[in-house]
Amino acid sequence: xxxxxxxxxxxxxxxxxxxxxxxxxxxxxxxxxVPTTPEMHACEYEPEPYSGPSYExxxxxxxxxxxxxxxxxxSKPMLLHQGKMQWLWDxxxxxxxDFFGGICTVGVGHCHPTVVESFTKQANKLWHTSNIxxxxxxxxxxxxxxxxxxxxLKVCFFTNSGSEANDIxxxxxxxxxxxxxxxxxxxxxxxxxxYTVGLTAxxxxxxxxxxxxxxxxxMNPDPYRGLWGGANCRDxxxxxxxxxxxxxxxxxxxxxxxAQLEETLKHSCAPxxxxxxxxxxxxxxxxxQFPKNYVKGAYEMIRARGGVCISDxxxxxxxxxxxxxxxxxxxxxVPDIVVMAKSIGNGVAMGAVVTTxxxxxxxxxxxxxxxxxxxxxxxxxxxxxxxxxxEEEKLMENCTKVGGxxxxxxxxxxxxxxxxGDVRGKGLMIGVEMVVDKxxxxxxxxxxxxxxxxxxxxxxxxIGRGSLVGNTFRIKPPMIVNDADVDFAxxxxxxxxxxxxxxx
Length: 504
Hints:
Layout: H1 9-22, H2 55-65, E1 80-84, E2 87-90, E3 95-98, H3 101-104, H4 113-123, H5 136-146, E4 155-159, H6 162-177, E5 182-185, E6 215-218, H7 252-268, E7 275-279, H8 294-304, E8 308-312, E9 337-340, E10 351-355, H9 357-366, H10 377-392, H11 395-416, E11 420-426, E12 429-434, H12 446-458, E13 461-462, E14 464-466, E15 472-475, H13 483-503
Parallel strand pairs: 3-13, 5-6, 5-7, 7-8, 8-9
Antiparallel strand pairs: 1-2, 2-3, 4-10, 9-10, 11-12, 12-15, 14-15
Helix pairs in contact: 4-10, 5-10, 6-9, 7-8, 11-13, 12-13
C-alpha cells in the first residue's frame, strides 16, 4: 500500500502521469452519424395558461427583492409555473422533460395524484400544532419509515432540511461519544449551514468565516478521478476505463484509500473520535461511487476508535438506486445514524435523522431538542404518501430497469465521444463526467459546460451539473420516468455533445 504522506510533489505528479498514461484510451473519431434535433414525445396532460407577472417583471422583482446569492440555473433563467409527473412548463407554455427533479427532490413525480390527495385531505383538517402535541401523522409515519430500515434503526428526529438533519447528527455523535473529531470525505456535500459547511469538502461552498473545527477531510475514494481505480471497483453497470490486476473479490484501490483514512486517524485525530459521515453515493460531488470494500472497511476503523457511522442518504435514499431502499445497504453495512431529506416529501420541506434507541436515549439525556415545524401534519401526510407510491407503483424496480437502460445508452456515448470521460451511477442516480480528453482527464471548462447545458435545455431537457468544477452532468429524474423519456434524454445529450465536438 502506498503512503502518500511520504510522497514528494514531484513523485506525486509522476504517479498521476503514470496512472493517466496507463489508462485504456481509444482513438475517438468524430461520428459519421450526424444526429438531428430529437423530437419530444407526446404528453397527454394540458397545463393551465400562465397568468402571473411577465418575465421582465419577475427579473425586476428578483433584482430588487431576492438575494443575489440565489443564483438561477442556465444563462437565461427559466420561469416555471406548472408541473405534472416528469414534465414541467414555463411561462410561455414550453414543455420540458425534468431529469433533475428539483435537485433530486421530486422523487415520485410533480403533483403525483396520490401525494396531492393525501396533502389536500390533511390541509382541510389541520396544518400545524407543533410536535409538543401529539398528532397521529407524526407517529404513523415514523413507524412506516423505520419499517424500511434495519431493525436497529427505529428512532426518528424530524427536521425541515438535510442540512438541519446533519447538524443534529453531528451534535448527537459528539454528545454520545464524548469525542469531538469527525471525519468526512473530500468532494462530499453535507449542507451549507454554519455547522455543516465544515463537513462539506467543496471549496466552492466555503466562506471566509470560521468553520470545520474538529472536522477532518480524508482522500476521496473516487475510482475514476482518484489516484487508484480499477476495472470493477463500482457497484454499477458501467465501470471506469481503468485497468487493474485485482482478483475476484479484491479491490486494491479500496485498500489504498482505506490506508489513507488510517493515516488521517493516526496523525490528525485523538485516540477516540466522534463519527464519520459518508454519502451513499456522492450527490453534489458528481454521483461518485466508492470502491466496493471501502465503506465497510471505513466503518470498522471508525467503530474501533469509538466513533459512530453516519450515512447521508439525502440524495441517494428512498429507492432511487433501484436495488435497495438505501444506498448504504449496497455496502453491506448498518449505520448508527441515517440522515435523509429531499425525496422524503417529494418537494415538501422535510428531513429526518433515524438512529438507534441507545443513541437517541443518550441525546435525550444531554439535550432539550425542539423544532417548531418538524414532523407537522402536512409534511408527514405527504411523506407517508411518498412511501405508498414507491411501494404500490414498484418504483425501485422501475429505477433498476429504466436506469439500467439509461446507463448502457450513456456508456455508448462515452465510447463514441472523446469528451465523455466517465459514466457512473446506479438506478436513477447517474453522473456523466465531461473532460477535455480521456488521457489527461482534465475537466471540461466551465464555459463549454454551460453552453452544452444550455443546449440541452433548448431542446427540452432539464439536467443538473455537479462536481467540484461543475463538469459532471447530474441525472436524477422523478422515479416514474419511462423508456421513452430515457431515449429522448440520451438523444438530446448526444446532440449537444456532438455539436461541441464538431466545433473543436
